Amino acid sequence: MTQQELVRQMRTNPENTLAALLWPRRSLSGTIGLVAGANLLLVASAWVKLPMWPVPMTMQTFAVLLIGATCGARLGTAAVGAYLAEAALGLPVLAGGSLLLSLGPTAGYLPGFLFAAAAVGLAADRGLTRRALPLLAALLVGEALIYLPGLAWLQAAYLHDAPATLAAGLLAFLPGEAAKLALAAAVILSSQRHMASRQRN
User: Fold this and answer.
1) What is the CA radius of gyration of the chain?
2) Domain count of the chain?
3) C-alpha to C-alpha distance for 72 and 123, rounded to whole angstroms
4) Alpha-carbon distances, residue 111 vs 18, 114, 138, 148 (angstroms)
5) Closest C-alpha to 33, from 87, 89, 71
């Protein structure tokens, strides 16, 4: 592959995403349906509670990463933005049915969802999520973008102690996040292999 071909491949192109491969001729109503479906996945993931060690966790971060990698930056952020708008309107879409207006200790993670969907989606648009190592790097960046504002809010509004903030807001969640990141990568890669196999046949 020449350098010019590589540059062309790396340009942002929503047609690189898995959603575009699955649904290449999407109408406006189809696009709205895709965003709505991704939004519903995120809503449902907030209500799935897993007995992970050392703390139970929802599947929200898994859904955010999956949405970004599958839908791309534009549609992925639209789906997550709709989720945050629903939360702002008081709909029971957050984990445990809590209200966004309560601004509890986990409120800082919510804008991180939007940042993560945009970053992972941009990587997908550029074709970087088609191979394992770039995909894992993109997912790790997405995780970091979720946790950084979450930790900042927890530190500034509640704990005011960096070690306590890291222990409560990050370290306790690392085993579960690692498992969800690995699951997201496996789902994305297996879906892409399946689509590539279908296209060859």
Assistant:
1) 17
2) 1
3) 8
4) 24, 5, 18, 10
5) 71
Domain that holds residue 112: 3-200
- Summarised one tens digit per residue, pLDDT across range 77-87 is 999 999 999 99
- What is the tens place of the pLDDT at every residue in 81-119? 999 999 988 888 988 776 665 678 888 999 999 999 999
Q: Domain with 175 in it: what CATH number?
A: 1.10.1760.20
**The token pair that represents 84 in the structure block:** 């945050």
| Helix, strand, or coil (residue 50) | strand
First to last CA, the chain: 25
Within 10 angstroms of residue 149's Cβ, the number of other Cβ atoms is: 18
Query: CA-CA distances (angstroms) from residue 166 to 96, 143, 162, 172, 176?
Result: 23, 15, 6, 8, 15
Task: Say what angle helices 132-154 and 60-88 make with each other, to 10 degrees.
Answer: 50
Q: Can you list the alpha helix ranges (DSSP code H) found in the chain?
A: 3-10, 18-22, 28-46, 60-88, 109-125, 132-154, 162-169, 174-200
Dist. CA 61–CA 45, nearest whole Å: 9
pTM of the model: 0.90
**Distance between CA atoms of 100 and 89, rounded to whole angstroms?**
8
User: DSSP label at 90?
Assistant: T
- For 173, the token pair is 């969640």
CA 25 to chain centroid, in Å, comes to 24
